[in-house]
Design brief:
Largest sheet of chain A: none
Number of strands of chain A: 0
Helix content of chain A: over 70%
Largest sheet of chain B: 5 strands, mixed
Distance between the termini of chain A: 15 Å
Number of domains of chain A: 2
Shape of chain B: globular
Strand content of chain A: under 5%
Helix content of chain B: 25-40%
Strand order of the largest sheet of chain B: 3-22-21-18-17
Largest interface: A-B, 24 and 23 residues
Oligomer: heterodimer
Number of helices of chain A: 13
Number of strands of chain B: 22
Distance between the termini of chain B: 18 Å
Chain lengths: 308, 483
């Protein structure tokens, strides 16, 4: 497999995952704002921070700010944090890898791209936002389903899956990070609305049911964080993502260095979380995780995608 | 009479599907009957089905606008162009004859130069050609073949005669659209494929792959490693490069994926290290292929690839230097070239061509310039051309002066009255002019596509079939049997 082709498929995995998670986060965030009273201080601005963009949005009214931020996160083709951008990049990477991927994946990615172009700016203005984002999530899952369901488990598949799992671990850590920010605020409010908040976090990764079935019936902050960080059975938990990425690296030629860096990352995950872990500590842990994941990415690049 | 054919008026030109009497030609009766069973709305619905299939399948071409590249859906007209198997058999024999002769010619030019010594073709014509590459002297590619993939443009004149308009021996494109047109039309007209016996075109990728393997040099690889070399995603034909790589199961590479080793062999960079490459189907122009040998500023090519080719360690298709035989003045000699190497008369005629370098020809051209098409020898893409009947007197005067000043650089041809076929325009069928590009492969043996890519000038009266200038396309059916 060509190094350049491997790089594109890896990025396809990352972008398709980023697109799906962006839609999930915005959708669940919209719900959260409806559920929580204003004094909890949940702000659209925090959503910008999840995506690592520090742009402070200046706008006259709260409504205008919501529209500006959502346009930035959903429709703006120039914003590298936008859903439209991730979909475009996923589609371009499929387009340029068509010799390696099932034809149906290209057809669906192309349709998703057309759909996003037609609908995302109205979703950022609020019209049918829930339905449009659900459609985007569904279409991303459809593309994933085609890829996972029809690709031979050979190098292209492993690069796709490697990219997907690294990106997914990163996105899950960002979702936890934002929720942790509220732990640092008014304790009484957290006590009162904590369960709503964490239920939302679980739902944003479709993890609510799996958490209840395999973890515990009560939704409670530390247990949710522990589940999303350490679980190795739930596919969107960081631990599970790293294990799978490790298996992908192991199936590729010269994958030892990448496997080693993933092992270090696994060792770095706290085996048990203190029940009274403060929000600030969770935040630091997630930041550190994101830095470590970026390090794994660099090892991937150095191993398989050296510049010509 | 068929409703949708009923109002069709194709009497002004030779029409591929309808005779002078307004009746469908025998080979078009089945489709005419079929279409007559549909209302105009149903016909338009089917065209919409074609358009949306093309969108969904992502069949596109790229055009440039203000530095940005835009994917456009490939334009395909619902109504096929139909030819009989017996007519096609003759065309096919003619194409085989022509391409074999052209390859013998190119091989001769870069080696013994017999044809120049025998003064059949003037040596100064070759030595002054921009497409003649001195770097290729003395090379003998496998099977003596240089132009492995050829796309010759055919046109039919008012009296029904088919001519070769030009030979594309460098990087001819369009074959992927021929294949996709068939896939789309099959979905829209399944019943026609049961009623007609239409020769398939789908074996092209396997034939291409077999041809490319047949020219591979001896190498340590157990089975030849064939790659498609593309300038990249911004090239207007990238869709085709990727399509062909995918359907052949070959790697699609860019220049930066390849490297020439100290052993003068070509390798590609893979996730498992360097892998030896045997045949490169290159879709990059000659002078961009190797910055070491030609243009030092080329970012698309592979430094040292000419060295590897000259050492016989890699096959290049088409071989560098093949373009010398698709120069417009050389074109005018192709009938003599066929006779010289094959000892046969050409089966498909050339369009009659006056060479202005010949004083008698020049006099004729100057006298009749208002009726002729004048083309510069070394330009392509219609650049610097005069279409006599459509030009003003002042332009005629200007070209007369140009011809007198530099006669060797010009040829002239009669203005052909290109054939038409019924084409859906709005909700009615109208005649539109078309041409045909079949694809010929030569390696250890020679094969021709059944039909080819039919291109259509979608604007009324226009002869411009280029997709970047509003041209469309049709599926091309070569049908068997007595019809």
């Amino acid at each position: 497999m060509l190094s350049r082709a491997a790089e594109r498929v890896y990025w396809l995995g990352r972008y398709i995952e980023r697109a799906e998670n962006t839609a999930r986060i915005v959708q669940q965030y919209s719900q959260l704002l409806l559920d929580l009273p204003e004094e909890v201080g949940v702000e659209w601005q925090d959503l910008v921070a999840i995506f690592g963009a520090d742009d402070n949005v200046e706008a006259a009214s709260a409504g205008a700010r919501e529209r500006t931020i959502l346009n930035f996160l959903l429709a703006d083709p120039l914003s590298s944090s936008s859903l439209a951008h991730s979909i475009r990049m996923a589609r371009d990477n499929i387009r340029n890898s068509r010799d390696l991927l099932p034809q149906e994946a290209w057809e669906n990615a192309n349709e998703l791209h057309q759909y996003a172009k037609a609908h995302l700016s109205s979703a950022s203005q609020g019209r049918n936002r829930f339905e449009i984002l659900s459609d985007c999530i569904g279409r991303c899952q459809q593309i994933n389903g085609i890829l996972i369901g029809t690709m031979s488990h050979a190098s292209p598949f492993h690069f796709l899956s490697l990219g997907q799992n690294i990106e997914r671990a990163d996105m899950t850590s960002r979702i936890i990070d934002v929720a942790a920010a509220y732990l640092q605020q008014n304790e009484a409010l957290v006590m009162r609305y904590g369960s709503t908040l964490w239920t939302n976090v679980l739902k944003s990764v479709s993890g609510f049911q799996m958490y209840r079935q395999y973890c515990q019936p009560e939704v409670e902050g530390m247990a949710v964080i522990d589940f999303l960080v350490n679980d190795t059975a739930f596919p969107r938990a960081i631990g599970a993502c790293i294990e799978r990425a490790r298996a992908n690296a192991g199936a590729l030629p010269h994958g030892d260095a990448v496997r080693g860096s993933l092992d270090e990352l696994l060792a770095f995950l706290p085996s048990t979380l203190a029940t009274e872990l403060a929000g600030a500590e969770v935040s630091r842990l997630m930041d550190k995780l994101q830095v470590e994941l970026a390090g794994v990415h660099q090892v991937v690049v150095g191993t398989w995608f050296p510049p010509a | 009479m068929a409703s949708v054919f009923g109002q069709y008026d194709g009497a002004n030109f030779y029409d591929e599907l309808v005779g002078k009497d307004g009746e469908p030609r025998p080979h078009a009766r089945l489709i005419a009957d079929f279409l007559s069973g549909l209302t105009p709305d149903e016909v338009v619905d089917r065209q919409h089905a074609v358009d949306s299939t093309i969108m969904d399948m992502g069949i596109s071409f790229t055009i440039y606008s203000e530095g940005d590249n835009i994917d456009r859906a490939w334009p395909l007209d619902l109504i096929p162009r139909i030819m009989t198997g017996s007519e096609w058999d003759r065309v096919e024999r003619g194409l085989v004859q022509r391409v074999m002769a052209l390859n013998l010619f190119i091989d001769d030019l870069y080696n013994d130069r017999r044809i120049l010594r025998d003064k059949v073709v003037p040596a100064e014509l070759i030595d002054s050609s921009r497409n003649y590459l001195e770097a290729c002297r003395g090379i003998r590619p496998k099977h003596g073949v240089w132009a492995h993939i050829c796309g010759s443009d055919l046109v039919r004149d008012g009296d029904g005669t088919i001519y070769v308009l030009e030979d594309n021996l460098r990087v001819p494109s369009g074959v992927s659209y021929m294949l996709e047109n068939r896939n789309v039309i099959k979905r829209v007209f399944p019943s026609m494929f049961r009623n007609y016996r239409i020769r398939p075109v789908s074996e092209y990728p396997s034939a291409l792959s077999a041809m490319l393997s047949s020219i591979a040099p001896d190498s340590p690889n157990a089975k030849p490693e064939v790659v498609v070399l593309t300038p990249g995603v911004f090239n207007s034909a990238y869709f085709e490069h990727s399509y062909l790589a995918r359907t052949m199961g070959a790697e699609l590479v860019e220049g930066s994926d390849l490297v020439v080793g100290d052993d003068d062999s070509v390798y590609m960079r893979t996730i498992d290290g360097l892998t030896r490459v045997d045949t490169i189907y290159r879709r990059i122009d000659d002078t961009f292929i190797d910055p070491e040998a030609f243009r030092p500023d080329s970012m698309l090519g592979v430094p040292g690839i000419m060295r590897a080719w000259r050492a016989g360690n890699v096959a290049l298709a088409n071989a560098p230097g093949s373009g010398v035989a698709d120069d417009k003045v050389v074109y005018s000699y192709v009938p003599e070239i066929i006779e010289y190497y094959m000892g046969e008369d050409p089966i498909i005629p050339n369009v009659p061509t006056w060479r202005c370098s010949d004083p008698k020809h020049l006099d004729h051209v100057i006298e009749n310039i208002a009726d002729l098409v004048v083309k510069p020898a070394n330009e392509s893409g219609g650049y610097g051309m005069l279409v006599g009947p459509h030009a003003s007197r002042r332009e005629h005067r200007k070209f007369r002066e140009l011809l007198k000043a530099d006669p060797r650089n010009y040829i002239a041809q009669p203005t052909l009255s290109l054939s038409t076929a019924p084409t859906l325009c709005g909700d009615r069928l109208e005649p539109r002019h078309l041409d045909l590009r079949p694809f010929i492969l030569q390696g250890d043996r020679i094969t021709v596509t059944a039909g080819g890519l039919t291109r259509v000038a979608m604007r009324k009266g226009s002869l411009v079939v280029n997709s970047s200038q509003g041209g469309g396309s049709k599926d091309t059916w070569v049908v068997e049997g007595d019809l």
